[in-house]
Amino acid sequence: MAGDSKQLLRLRHGALALALVALASCAPRLVPPAKPIPPVTEPAKPPPPANAIAAGVAAVALPELDPVSAARALQAFRISCPALVKRQDASGLTTPDDWRAPCDAAMGAVVPSEFFAAQFAGVRVGEGAAFVTGYYEPQIRGSRARMPGYEVPIYARPADLSVTDPVTGETKTGRIVDGQYSLYFDRTEIEEGALAGRGLEIAWAADPIELFFLQIQGSGRLLLPDGSIMRIGYAGQNGREYTGIGKLMKERGLLGPGQTSMQGIVAWLREHPDEGRAIMRENKSFVFFKELTGAGPLGALGLPVTPRASVAADPRFIPLGAPVLLNLDRAEASGLWVAQDTGGAIKGANRFDTFWGAGEEAALVAGGMQGKGEAILLLPKASVARLDARPQR
Predict the structure, then answer these.
(1) DSSP H or E stretch at residue 328
(2) What CA–CA distances, in Å, run from 52 to 93, 119, 128, 317?
(3) Which residue in 263, 264, 260, 258 sits closest to 247, CA to CA?
(4) Fewest CB atoms within 10 A around its CB: which of 14, 79, 253, 341?
(5) pLDDT at 230
(6) Mean pLDDT lowest for which of 28-42, 101-115, 247-261?
(7) For the packed helices 100-108 and 112-119, what is the interaxial angle rounded to 10 degrees?
(8) Residue 330 — pLDDT band, cuts 50, 70, 90?
(9) What's the pLDDT score for residue 217?
């Protein structure tokens, strides 16, 4: 009986404990519930600088200039002068009047390195860390008329490429669809016939891969069936963002060591035609052309560019026409250049694309060019004096 009493007591205590637990669950909470932990967010990155002034400009001493590259740069600089004394500078660094004294002196300069040292002062834009690639004037097979073996259209700039946005009133690269602004046709749409039948074909290429890389270069030569040459140059772009397929292919593990040059990329595209076509179409940018006559190819100033002397740059940071000294881990690209061109992939304060001319050697050098180092921008001394006189923040 005693054992039964202890067992009953244990049961009663258990029941009491359960009752207390139940009561506690029904009682109002005296401790407030824990607040949810907010998600961790990274601080917003500041927007990139809009131009050279925003990026920061610091004076640096000019080293002794290589006489060979200085001689080529002087020839290129003289070509730029008619445009320099008239155009507005998007970088905010120079005015047309700043260029008058250097341009006048350039016409009679005898020793190029002394001319640049006397007329210019060196500055560093931003950190000055340069990344440099190369471009050239390619020659591909083409025909003025469509015929077997020449089936890839080379288009002139469409008349409807620039439109007025009915909402904002801005002039934009695009088209009007059902009364509303829309982006212009991308590469896939154009290649699938969006512009066919409008009489825009100025020539026909034999190979879509060759034409793709000619579009990247921006100008080139067509070797016609009769052996003659037709030169074509940049006439416009569809407003879509440029995507470098080499970077995509590298990120996806499609290119092995030593295959990241233009030659390696072309070889892969030819070995994988279906996948290659799809990758090329991921670059939605599409370039339109016009036939060129006279000297060329022409750069962004509308003037001829010079092999081994002209360089493409971002005009928001480097005044077009200005000399640039490159000190790189690639000796062939080190020296004095002149910014006379632009490019869809050439963005940022110290991003440059060196021009190597035409032919197989130019293609080899340009296709494998990836140089890193320092860039020093040469500005007219009047520009530097005005920048120095600005009130400090």
Answers:
(1) strand 323-328
(2) 7, 21, 11, 4
(3) 260
(4) 253
(5) 95
(6) 28-42
(7) 160
(8) very high
(9) 82
Percent of the chain with pLDDT over 90: 69
Asked whether the predicted pLDDT for residue 21 surpasses 90, the reply is: no
Q: Where are the alpha helices (DSSP H) in 91-171?
A: 100-108, 112-119
| Domain locations along the chain | 244-282
Predicted confidence (pLDDT) at residue 125 exceeds the cutoff of 90: yes
Examine the pLDDT at 31 and tell me if it is beyond 50: no
Task: Give the C-alpha separation, 84 to 59, whole Å.
Answer: 22
Alpha-helical (H) ranges within the chain are: 2-26, 52-55, 67-84, 100-108, 112-119, 187-191, 208-217, 245-251, 262-271, 273-281, 360-367, 381-388
Backbone angles phi, psi at 164, to 5 degrees: -100, 120
pLDDT number for residue 42: 61
DSSP classification of residue 97: G
3-state helix, strand and coil shares in percent for the chain, rounded to the nearest 5: 35, 25, 40
Where b means 16+ CB within 10 Å and e means fewer, 167-183 reads eeeeebebbeeeeebee
What single DSSP character describes residue 98? Answer: G
Contacts (Cβ under 8 Å, ≥6 apart) of 238: 161, 173, 184, 185, 186, 187, 190, 284, 285, 286, 287, 288
